[in-house]
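ERR on first pass: missing label on line 2. Operator R.T. fixed the label and resubmitted. Corrected input:
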Amino acid sequence: MSTSKLKGWKEIPIGGMILEAGNSARYETGGWRTFRPVMDRESCKNCLFCWIYCPDSAIAVENEKIKGIDLRYCKGCGVCAHECPANAIQMVEEAKL
Amino acid sequence: MGKPVAMTGNIAVANAMRQINPDVCAAYPITPSTEVMQQFASFVADGKVDTELVTVESEHSAMSACIGAAAAGGRVMTATSANGLALMWEMLYIASGNRLPIVMMVVNRALSAPINIHGDHSDGMGARDSGWIQFYSENAQEAYDNLIQAVVIGQNRDVRLPVMVGMDGFIISHSIENLELLSDQQVKDFIGEYIPLYPLLNIKQPVTFGPLDLQDYYSEHKRQQAEAMKLAKPVILKVAQDFAAVSGRKYGFFETYRLEDAEIAILTLGSSAGTARFVVDEARERGVKVGLIKLRLFRPFPMEELQAALGQVKALAVMDRCDSFGAAGGPVFSEVRSALYDLSPRPAVINYIYGLGGRDLGIAHIEQVIRDLQEIRQTGKVKELITYLTVRE
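pass 2 clean. output:
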């Protein structure tokens, strides 16, 4: 992180207050990830188990079908791969991708 | 001229709270502050105030409730003592870190162990770095006056800090004194309407209190707190000026007594100032050039002002009703002596630890201090830097 973009003490709200609602959407937590879920679209039956279990709402769904995985928020916990009844998700080490 | 009454310190403080009529009070009883909340609870029950009184299961919860209510946008108060204040410790930092102007009466008392319920300053001094503004009161009148001023100081937009007002347990809290109360309307006008800065209950502007604040911004928020303490100083003086206009009673960071031409001086805070003032008068009659400084404000510490007031003094005794074990003297001594370091010539300073656990400080003790100071004045030497004044050898 570049420190030059950070604000000084006179420019920020007092007491660490966050004055803007819903701004946590901008806090991308995908950088924490070691393993990435890789989905095999052929095997996926769109049962939405991964969507239900994902603790970070990182599974994108459109028209009741899995659209993909939002890697900006996926922390690589592997719950989706574990729960997938069709074995359509594999956890792959980020370094190997 | 206010209404003259005879009251204990605790009842006087409860009456200040009644006149302030805060939105929320958290109550958990601990000696010697119990009577404050007990009396205030009667005011609530009798409909004299429309405060929401929250009875909680510990002082930790009391301060937590205060923090929640203050974040919601309320004017919030509570009272505690000793171990109760110690149990609030982590919440004190959260109150100040979140910049919530909670006002708390601290009826100063010794901390266990061994168990002791009597007056000393160990509780307040233990919380001296928690980011709260701290006042100490000499008597019931000052406790009452300080508490009302604390409300206005804490809520000032430049300050936004919690404020604790101390008075000595039992010596003031349970003794009946004559004092003057302002009228309810005077207090109401003086404290004004409270306009919270970012109330959680304002659904038009949702905000977050107390988020995670790591290496990137924590230092900046602490720097803001330091600045708020600096900005509190002129606010405290302005509020004191406004208070004098209403009450006729004048307050500063400290009070000087016969200090103008003094060669030796005693610095103390709390109820012992009354005894010291009496002994100073006696010594003056004998021709001893001795003066007194009674510290009212301990946080923010009035360093520059003390330098200016004590510049001409040759020897100074700092009285601590609290020890700081293993430190370079009691908490007040360390700071006063540090403040005077830059003076040239600088006064010789000696520390007296006294009155722990409610041990009486008598006239003879202060006379001993004055004799010691006279010797230091003559020889220029402090024999024993830290002296235990009211302890048996």
